[in-house]
Amino acid sequence: MQKTVKPIRTGEEYIESLKGRDLKVYLFGELVKEPVSHPMIRPSINAVAKTYDLAVEEEELAFPKSSISGERVNRFLHIAESAEDLVLQNKMQRKLGQLTGTCFQRCVGMDAMNSLHSTTFEIDEKHGTKYHQRLLEFIKMVQHENLVIGGAMTDVKGDRSLAPSEQEDPDLFLHIVDRDDKGVYVTGAKAHQTGTINSHWMIVMPTMRLLENDKDYAIVGALPVDAPGITYIYGRQSCDTRSMEPGDIDVGNSEFGGQETMVIFDRVFIPNEMIFMDGEYEFASMLVERFTCYHRRSYVCKTGLGDVLIGAAAAIAEYNGVPKVSHIKDKIIEMTHLNESIYAAGIAASYQGHKMKSGVFLNDDMLANVCKHNVTRLPYELARLAQDVAGGILVTLPSEAEFRSAETGPLLEKYLKGKSGIEVENRMRILRLIENMTMGRNAVGYLTESMHGAGSPQAQRIQIARQMQLGYKKQLAKNLAKVKEDPEEMKENSEYFKRVFKIPEK
Amino acid sequence: MQKTVKPIRTGEEYIESLKGRDLKVYLFGELVKEPVSHPMIRPSINAVAKTYDLAVEEEELAFPKSSISGERVNRFLHIAESAEDLVLQNKMQRKLGQLTGTCFQRCVGMDAMNSLHSTTFEIDEKHGTKYHQRLLEFIKMVQHENLVIGGAMTDVKGDRSLAPSEQEDPDLFLHIVDRDDKGVYVTGAKAHQTGTINSHWMIVMPTMRLLENDKDYAIVGALPVDAPGITYIYGRQSCDTRSMEPGDIDVGNSEFGGQETMVIFDRVFIPNEMIFMDGEYEFASMLVERFTCYHRRSYVCKTGLGDVLIGAAAAIAEYNGVPKVSHIKDKIIEMTHLNESIYAAGIAASYQGHKMKSGVFLNDDMLANVCKHNVTRLPYELARLAQDVAGGILVTLPSEAEFRSAETGPLLEKYLKGKSGIEVENRMRILRLIENMTMGRNAVGYLTESMHGAGSPQAQRIQIARQMQLGYKKQLAKNLAKVKEDPEEMKENSEYFKRVFKIPEK
Amino acid sequence: MQKTVKPIRTGEEYIESLKGRDLKVYLFGELVKEPVSHPMIRPSINAVAKTYDLAVEEEELAFPKSSISGERVNRFLHIAESAEDLVLQNKMQRKLGQLTGTCFQRCVGMDAMNSLHSTTFEIDEKHGTKYHQRLLEFIKMVQHENLVIGGAMTDVKGDRSLAPSEQEDPDLFLHIVDRDDKGVYVTGAKAHQTGTINSHWMIVMPTMRLLENDKDYAIVGALPVDAPGITYIYGRQSCDTRSMEPGDIDVGNSEFGGQETMVIFDRVFIPNEMIFMDGEYEFASMLVERFTCYHRRSYVCKTGLGDVLIGAAAAIAEYNGVPKVSHIKDKIIEMTHLNESIYAAGIAASYQGHKMKSGVFLNDDMLANVCKHNVTRLPYELARLAQDVAGGILVTLPSEAEFRSAETGPLLEKYLKGKSGIEVENRMRILRLIENMTMGRNAVGYLTESMHGAGSPQAQRIQIARQMQLGYKKQLAKNLAKVKEDPEEMKENSEYFKRVFKIPEK
Amino acid sequence: MQKTVKPIRTGEEYIESLKGRDLKVYLFGELVKEPVSHPMIRPSINAVAKTYDLAVEEEELAFPKSSISGERVNRFLHIAESAEDLVLQNKMQRKLGQLTGTCFQRCVGMDAMNSLHSTTFEIDEKHGTKYHQRLLEFIKMVQHENLVIGGAMTDVKGDRSLAPSEQEDPDLFLHIVDRDDKGVYVTGAKAHQTGTINSHWMIVMPTMRLLENDKDYAIVGALPVDAPGITYIYGRQSCDTRSMEPGDIDVGNSEFGGQETMVIFDRVFIPNEMIFMDGEYEFASMLVERFTCYHRRSYVCKTGLGDVLIGAAAAIAEYNGVPKVSHIKDKIIEMTHLNESIYAAGIAASYQGHKMKSGVFLNDDMLANVCKHNVTRLPYELARLAQDVAGGILVTLPSEAEFRSAETGPLLEKYLKGKSGIEVENRMRILRLIENMTMGRNAVGYLTESMHGAGSPQAQRIQIARQMQLGYKKQLAKNLAKVKEDPEEMKENSEYFKRVFKIPEK
Prior knowledge:
The structure is a homotetramer. The first copy, chain A, contains 18 helices and twelve strands. Chain A has about 500 residues and is of the alpha+beta class. Chain A folds into three domains: about 10-285, Butyryl-CoA Dehydrogenase, subunit A, domain 2 (Beta Barrel), CATH 2.40.110.10; about 295-465, Butyryl-CoA Dehydrogenase, subunit A, domain 3 (Up-down Bundle), CATH 1.20.140; about 470-500, no CATH class. The two termini of chain A are about 45 Å apart. Chains in contact: A-B, A-C, A-D, B-C, B-D, C-D.
């Protein structure tokens, strides 16, 4: 098990804490010796490190006091004690997006712990189990040691028309394959895992509604990421190998990047005290829904990336000598409008948060889905506009090596000259950043992961449908149209409008 | 002056209070005897009446306690004492949109009083004037008597390339033409005035930034709507005369409608104690900007209309027998998503409100503009989708007279039969409501007025541009791209990001 | 039967030809004495009249030579003898849209005759019937007498989940209720009938795929619109009664308008020689598909209306004094881009036309659907942009009566003054035209009918799906991705790509 | 000079013809020995080779008879002799897009030769020069030898607010620096050059309107790509180095790719007989406008890429086991609709082509701009939808090396299993193809180059504005609104509507 001696404080200490672990990580078919020093992995570690530094620099934003441990803790480890706490998660997320221009990988863990807070409480209430207390102990420990927690939810899923227990291969969803006095053994694989190998612990959770036959799949537990039996296979992404090239221009954002792995579990042990659900299959969907409710609103982080992209577009317009041209200005305004539309939905969702039985606050579900749904669309339009503003040189620019070469360097200096006073190198840097965010390594996070993370667009539409209270709305229309003798039966299972018209608690 | 004997309480009492006034209102070239009983005007009065009834029915939402008068007052007369008050304005606005399906005409007055609260305070601070105290007296009076206040801002403007004082005809902007001991006399005209003749008092205000030569145009004052010298010319709108036809189906929404007039002032007197600005031209733009800041976010009301339209679309889908068809469901989900995107921006703007020197709260300006800007686009898409769901019958449906006729009525009953069990009349009613909101009388409020009210789209883009803090964002990009020796000078005059990352006050 | 003595030549002669017929038309619950002189109906007649005048004025465009009658005939009565003829239909349609700003109501008849040309030929081929020759005789007659032909396809449909023969009431689809030596008797009702009472003859056709049990519904025949047993119920539309008010400003487009009626058949007789299908139910879907193939591309007419709306937006920008403002210009460019995108799809569909067995040309189906599908979206955006450019005065403008009044007229002249040199009346006229096209009477044709005419959006999506040849495209992708051992079986039933890559015939 | 012995016929022969040339190409700072065998360059050569093979396989489409040489020639070398020829260019372009999934790099040369055909004719007409005849000789030669011609237009431009002759460094636009009896010497640099090093000859042309002072910049001439003094610097693009990795999966499209270089001219000689403009600066804008008129419509090629992407989306939907899910189907239909909207505009532009004085046909300019403008938007939406359909695995998929590895390969085989019967490898292949086209190497061509090639979006808007004939359209509106005494002066310089209503020539 994890043997941290004293709490991690800074990003640097965090990076130190990752070294020397016995992780089995494969990349390009080979075992990675030390992920921390691998040039393609390191940027993703730097992004997480930033979450530590921010907590040091901006306490109110990122280092709140927890009533669980009684200490100030990193907000990513904090259980939301008010709607305001939810709002502050969003604000911290935007800030970190601005500082890294990429995914900083800690939201899944934060959202997992928060959703487990209420779910374990309600399981215990029904089944007389002790999950909630165990969870609190776990939280206390990670808060105190200040660890990074990954959350592993998405199973590989196999044939999507079949339930976990119906799959030809039972391992296509993570499940208990054995158990003894001390705990359980799980086998399976989780796909699209963000930042797992940059974590200290991960929490495994089911990925969907389960039925009685799927009982063995109803397992939630925490385990160190270097637990025996885990294999990580690193995902490849657009332009990933540029991190391994010399120089720091072509990579676009040389310091920060995201990380996605497939995590394979082969009889991995979870001790009893780290188990937070074990067979209570009927709570799987509650957990998933609460997790996605938090998590869809966590995509506000993308407005921080949007800020960077808007800034890059404005900078390149200036370097190109056209910052005052009306259509250029107009495009940058449009980018801003769209970016803030995303932000607004996240903040509104958090602000309309409400207290659960366990005491934790959960944000509004409708607006969280609206936020995420905008995230599946608007960043693509921002990216398109950024490419428009950047000009064609975005995709025809020669390499940094060319720029450094004695033969071609001077030619580029001569011929890539734009407005006088602008360094060619700086122009290249901004262009490569835009490439990075719209078709390169961080486009993965800014675009495709915006599309599919926390559920693909259709998942949000389903959830919006569930809460849109058509009965209530039809009745509004019927009232105004004076429809005769055809009242709506309003059997709504959503509380959205109750929340909309609720008087905020002081 | 206004001689209300006792406070108005209900909608009915409000309607009573409007009767018998000596208003000079022209409609179709003729003087209207009694607006209250004019069938084309009455629906707009009913809409205002609903704002009284709601205050009776839902105190927390619409009848808060004012620390000015110490009484519970209608929220439309309330000065916002917290960010939460701003949020509750939005919630009330959505509710009233749901209940009326139209513009209820009181937001201008509310937003005018709130923006005057801080502006008069700051004028006094600079000039040692007494406007703020006068305003508080006025507010106390209207709160106590529970009156409707209109706000008259938009001048007719003449040649848009010239300042008020430069126009060929000096009356194209409202201005002081004379003054004596008791007060001032004003002449001019205000266009696009919403609900003025349904008000008890109106507040005149300048419509734009003024310069020294425009001093006479820098006049803010309150006056009863029946003050001598005022002429109202009623605007015509799509399908307006249907309100004057027999029957209640074809009109779509027989009870509620909006109202727009042109108001012409011919030497209208404003007594000194009702003057809140008089010549302090340099504060005109502050007033206008604060007013539009409040008012652009007030367009959240349109989400209430959106709820009605979504409900109508869902109802007609059911009447057409296709509520489960996947593309129909999908369109209704899309309508909901767009509608809530508007709502979110309003709520977020209000939530990010901050306290002004005078004590009143002002919402965030960027997000208010984002809210309004979405309002200039998304309702049009909602309307398009509603027409898609409704089917072609929306525009080929015969008249109610046909339905009531002995010859054609039975034919319609036979041939307009859809799904069994559905009354043809109810189907007609819902279709006419959709027509009303997408191309009829209330389309004016739901669409065109959504476009131009509180400033046309371009006005929001200018305001968004002012606050988008490109310097800050460019620096973010330069940091990540490691741009060398080219730091941004960040002379931002916007506080948007300060607000974004501010810790909410408890 | 129709008793025209000599061919109609001009619009005036056409209007004359409509007078004195014994039509049973109901409007507002009452029988209309003479539709030709009814102020609400007349604009729709004027629009049809324009199709005659154009043929006189522009022979090449609108008065081609027919190889059936050997004479020059109105293009609306012409059977397409080349792809070029199809293209010229589109060009004429755009021109008439420009000249009338509304629906000129003759495309259904044109498209019906063209689709019957090939369908009757193929029925005869299979069944040995004589429909094609009968149709040719009918065409010769109407070509010679130069008559207006309406096409009546859309049945009222009742419960959409049931086939015609399964409906509770058998009359919900038009069907044969009796027959004798001379012909058949039909009963039923057709909804959304465009311009029927402005026609001389109409052709009834089934509205959907039929099965054996629906044999009696498989009837196609021509009959004079004043045949005994027909009742017309006039549809009401936005702002329709403005045509009946004094003055010509408020109506927006005083001369031209559309017309939609419900047509009810009560044992209406069709003589044998006018029957073009009688029981061959398996050809119903062929007829419908060919008709919609022609007709969806006929919506190119809306680009003519788009031209008018763009012109109106440009004119009002000028009257408002802002024609050079960059965002205004940009919006007008965008309107043009969208309008031409529609046009292009229509022209491309016609150009890729091909010859049928009967000799008539049929345009490409995919592109016709793409054209119509754009028509269900882009005019709404054009309308939104036109409202944006117009300004709020669009919906607050007082009535023409006010403008003519001695009291308020001078006030409007004074206060609606914009840029110097612009007549207030002209500004009002253009504003009312924009209102007319975006929310008034002709918005019905420009928007809602654009949505639903010739099939609602989903109908186009289904048809696009049928022709998109995914097998072919999947194989393209598999080739490039070097997918192993998984070739596509390409059982495409579409010839789209064959057409795309076909060498045009000279 | 070029010394081809016998005409090139096949793709293979073409590749052979490129070998052993003395080209100075830099890539990653180093001189490339033999571009033909460089793994990163070769895919772009393969794409050009396909244009030869198609001419062999589909003569009617790609190997027309030229009346210049009297022989059948590759269509890329053909001068359009009819509107049909223009249409066939489009059809060939779509086909090649389908076959390669990338840019095949020959359109610039084709469009340059066609625009020079008419421009040289008109220069000669005015100045009595002999350019046209020289051009015909050049065309005859390249047609006979069947060579690839590149066109070099876009200068690097320096400070965009200054004319060529005003730049601090005169070389920022290509210009004549010396001349002798035999010809001229040019210096400068062309950016964003597509496929130049895959060509045999290139034609240099000015990039914008020139004034008298820019006379030395008014040079058009043909020269072999290996002429002394030319340096090529290869542009880097998203994921470009994957072509150099082992395996053929991760690259997505292993066979085909695009190519962009910067071309630097240092006193490069052009002999007199290869000069087609020399100082006639007033014809520069005519040449540029005609070139972009052809070239903007040439972007129809992107519909071929769209077909591949649609096919890939359909294939992955099937591999994911969800081909029948309604929202998936709907997204593929939408992709098709958008793709065909682009195609339609191209075809319509070509079809509305007209004959120039020199005999060559030029397509319609308005519709060409509409086509290209759609290309700057719709492929981005297609890409977004493809990423939606693909699922998150698109950006988390492990590398091919992993799949081939003895340790991780079996894990991937086990856990990436989807629907039974689907090979994991094939699923990976299709996913990588989608990545390739939406964020990888061919996204450059499908997206960013679609944005900026042949002029950025704003360039099309300017051109649309020039041709939108607002005077004509305002008059249409004024006619219908019965505007009094304010006729439009129609000084349109566009012939668009003349073309729209023109009777097509037989």
